[in-house]
Amino acid sequence: MVMACRVINKRRHMGLQQLSSFAGTGRTFLGPLKLSKFIIDAECHESVLISSTVRLLESLDLTSAVGQLLNEAVQAQNNTYKTGTSTLLFLIGAWSSAAEECLHLGVPISLIVSAMSEGLNSCIEEVVSLQVPVYNVFDQIDNTKTFSGVETSSVSLCPFLQIPSDTGLQKEHDLKDVASPSLTFYNLSGIPVRSPKLFRSQAEVEADKNTLQNPQSLQNSLLTGSRYGKSILIHSRHFNRTDNNQWINKPDGFLEQHGGATPNTYRCSDLVELEMGLSHGDHHSMKLVDEAVRLQYQNASMQQGSRMMPFRFDISRIFTCCLPGVPESFSCVCPGFITVISISNTTLIKELQNQPIRILLIEGDLTEKYRHLGFNKATNINTVLESMRVQQDTTEELWTNYVLQVLIKFNVNLVLVQGNVSEHLTEKCIHTKRLVLGSVNSSVMQAFAEASGAVQVTYITQVNENCVGSGVSVTFWRSIPSDVIDRINVITIVIKTEGINLVTVVLTSPVTAQMQTKEDRFWTCAYRLYYALEEQKVFLGGGAVEFLCLSHLQILAEQSLSKRNYVCSGWLPDTSSWLASSLALYRSTVLKCLANGWHKYLSTLIYNTASCSSEFEASTFIQQRLQNATDSGSPSSYILNEYSKLNSGIFNSGISNKLEQIPSIYDVVIPKTEAWRRALDLVLLVLQTDSEIITGLGHRQLNSQETEGFLFL
């Protein structure tokens, strides 16, 4: 689909320019406040609503070599981690521009590759200091508070990247916005005030209602800024400030703060805090993830009893069932397998829901033509009939009757098939009060095999008594209004058995165009939590690690610049190697260009979260923070101290004992760093393999039409 076009200069690197153009289409997806896009087909004028990088690339024309490489990189990130694709796409564009700038400045390609790779590896090593260990989050799961979902999205930036109200960098209309209860507020004088609690008593809720109903109270509230004002996201209670503090990253990964009477070790050991930090403002999706995790935990507790092993979140046993056109209130999490079937099966389900069900599991297809790969019919036998159609119908009918005989013999009422199912067989089974479902996920098959005692088979001829499971129930899921059922033309059923380790998340939306977006957002939150628990560590989020990378690269660039001056002056004795001396000369230039990519990332992130009216203002604010970090002598300590400093300022009013009510901002470690690596790998691959570079005019003068073209997306 034609999305946009950009002028391409044929005298510069074509591949890098194309990467930058493709990446520029996804700038608004960076950060928690993603803006949806309408993709319009220029030929048939059809449109689709998208809100993610993956769906964007699915709608663009990526037939070029560069486009295909870009799509492969994004798909690999999404298929593995389900998160980090927006960061990946943006950095591809930013670092493509950086590499192109290095070429324009005359830096050899080999040195660009070497210096950029070295710079990114150094950044990944540096940000280890911002990792927070995660462990034992399930130890108190029965006694802890549950996740409190907030319908509105909140701004997710690290505290020192929030724009204070007295800097003049705010949008005026931001001061009128009602912020999320999970945020800390600053009044118009820049003074932090206590935010409404995320977990409140009924008395406090009623008091809030009375305040809003009383005009005088509401006016006082507005004047003090305690309920309305610029939203500033607070940060982890694990980074409290003490005087003259120093932050030490211990060998075991814990962040330790010295300077007080007793050193404190900081970590995340609370499930709700971890979920809030990883939600990035999407509290509705994370609330569903939390309910799914707790259902899994309860099931594991019942199965193992007092000798329960350490619980492990199994994301492979979580599934989604999307119901477009159904009101939002029907979204929920349920044990068992929930799926949709044709409304014509209503009578069949009514027959099955009041009787015990025996189940059969088929791994392959359930069709007449599905056979073992080694099976071949005899080649020297020809069957001659007046009509080939009669032969096909006869064969299909004979096979269908055989399958029905097998199902009747073993009293099977429910058949789950991993592959395709013959439509003729499905219709025949309905008439004999048997339900056949195809295209069932392999993990669902395995879950029913474990819980019902069934054994999965590949062919219907392999079925015997030992392969059939029992104890399964089939019922209608919920009572959906009849007008909604008539509109969506399907019914929803739940299939389960006692002790099954299977959870289905039902996602609904009255707007069909938003259904895919809701499912994508749910899986993003689920995989963030999954990888945080698997790795047992998270980053401080909201731009903190990217800010540290930017600061670190600038320091490296300055050090390289000093070294280059020594090389040019002949002070360094080891200048015999051309590569070593050239790298010393150009390293500073390349690292600065690489750092500019991080600067663009942070500027766009702050601008997208509505903290600034322009990216230029955001860039100015970042530059001020960078100067402060450089002056501190240790950027990582500066970041941690800023966290603790703001916490200290917010909680000086005698409420420091209630820090557990305040959410943090976290990022997963491996998905984020892998997105960085993939972005740079793709840029360097295109840089080294693209041959469409015109280095000079040569013996003829190129006109403007030959030196400039259009890239259509």
TrEMBL record:
Short name of any one Pfam family annotated for the protein: Cpn60_TCP1
Cellular component GO terms held in the UniProt record? chaperonin-containing T-complex; cilium
A biological process (GO) of this protein is:
eating behavior
SUPFAM superfamilies with a match to the protein in the record: GroEL apical domain-like, GroEL equatorial domain-like
Q: Which domain of life is it from?
A: Eukaryota
Molecular-function GO term, any one: ATP binding
Q: Which Gene3D superfamilies match?
A: GroEL, GroEL-like equatorial domain, TCP-1-like chaperonin intermediate domain
Q: PANTHER family recorded for this chain?
A: BARDET-BIEDL SYNDROME 12 PROTEIN (PTHR46883)
- Tell me what this protein is called: Bardet-Biedl syndrome 12
